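Q: What does the assembly look like in three dimensions?
Context provided by user:
Components: two
Sequences:
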Amino acid sequence: MNGLNPNPRHTWAGPLHGAVSDRPAIAGPDAAAKRPHDGISLLGTTALLFEAPGETGLEVQRRIWSLAREAETWPEVREAVPGVNNLLVTWREPPRRLAPLADRLAAAWEAAPPLALEGRTVELPVVYGGEGGPHMADVVAHTGLSPEEIAEIHAAPLYPVYALGSHPGYCYLGGMDPRIATPRRKVPVLRIPGGAVSIGGSQTGVSASPGPSGWNTIGSTEMSFFDAARTPPALLQPGDSLRFRIAGVVR
Amino acid sequence: MIRLLACGALATVQDRGRLGALRWGVGVAGAMDAPALAGGNLLVGNPDDAAGIEIQVLPLEARFESEAVFAVTGADCTAVLDGVPVLPWTVARARAGATLRLDRPAAFRPWGARTYLCVAGGIDVPVVLGSRATQLRGAIGGLEGRSLQAGDALPLGRPAGDPPPPGTGLVPPVLALPLAVGGVPALRVLPAAEHDRYTTDSLAAFWGEPWRVTPQSDRYGFRLAGSTLVPLAPMELRSHGIVPGVIQVPHGGQPIIQMCDAQPSGGYPKIGTVIEADLWRLAQAPIGARIRFVETDWDGALAARDAIDGWLEAARRDLSCLRPRSAA
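A: Here is the predicted structure of the complete assembly.
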């Protein structure tokens, strides 16, 4: 058994036994161990999650985009949606046997070349702290930095859009400086406003509409990220970039 | 057209959901109790993708502006059409100008939390990104992307054909496919990626103890109360796609089951996923109710899916025998 797999039961050894035993050639107690497919797990019968090994980075993310392009052409697959260092694969109809699909996904990952997307850059003015950044104090407490330092560090990079998700038009961004990383909140907040700029763990993003969130809101901005009548409906796509400009820091 | 004369909070137009828009960050929305909507659509002769009204807070009162065939499914309620009681899960016909009142039953402890009103032709709001379902976050689909209120006029589509005769009924899934452990409604769960990263005591509690549905439970998610689930070590995950049914455990240790209006991605650890075939059972668990989790595997989850599909197909077959010849 691969020692890296923290969760052998719920990759292919346990609940998927029926699927594995469909393959008599390698059936047996260690059949699954030969193909543990670290990083593949189930989300019920609706979807499968593939998590790439290693650190988050643009190079890995480009391979995720590439894997998504490949997987979404498979007949069983409804959507292949990139996350941050991972890929969600939803089924049109859940396959009777999972193992062949898992094998195929693992092989496709090994073969996936980094996909370079030519994106646009959008600039967003942000007011940090104050009413629009109710959790700035928590980030200050966690990092030991001042609000001004946090704003400066946050606004410095050009952030590539890694993935869309969370809610309509929302972008997961890569490249946040780890000095301002702050854990997600112990209990999610029931409503943060649209335009909230927030930090969750080592990630940052801007909410595109009001809704619940487990992240720490440090500032606010105004931008329409989503319009269902537009084609495509989302303003930004993986491969585009965001730059934050400090419009003010409120203490 | 039907006009709402009275309407409780959070009633929405829903269909089977918006599939295929996750790439833009758009979740599935759709009916929380999918079999109730599907059964209602069958009863009134609608196609599978027709929209109905999901009702969370009774009473609701509606006037049919033109003659229409309708059915009330899902959670128990008393339905009265112009003073005459209407059976649930049954085809009924309303004349133009008739008023339907759906109320909370007083005489006994009612089952369920969400009632569906399906009308022949379906609620004909515009299709947005492939679906009529209301997604409150982002105000997409449904009637202007919002929940319904008194005074709203809901357009009806053209009925697809002659529905079965009034009085025709279906046995609801809660009677056809009951599932409980020790008298507590049960949900089958497939373990998810972080399941094994919890303490033995936490896993014993997760699988062995009842969980209470807290008042902070809605179409976004069900927040549960019970023993605190403790991870073996702190986890901070990277954001990934999630689906309705995923049971997340925030750092506070009280699980949240993501539901139809859930974000399509998240980063809290996932202990399991309520299988697709049992989501309707959760949708019908009222606030304060207790639920239990039962572990299943891929084959078990597929069998459960087959069972609910089988219920629907048997209903489709039976009803098609009762439809007037002209519909053929």
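Follow-up: The longest helix of chain B spans residues 298-322.
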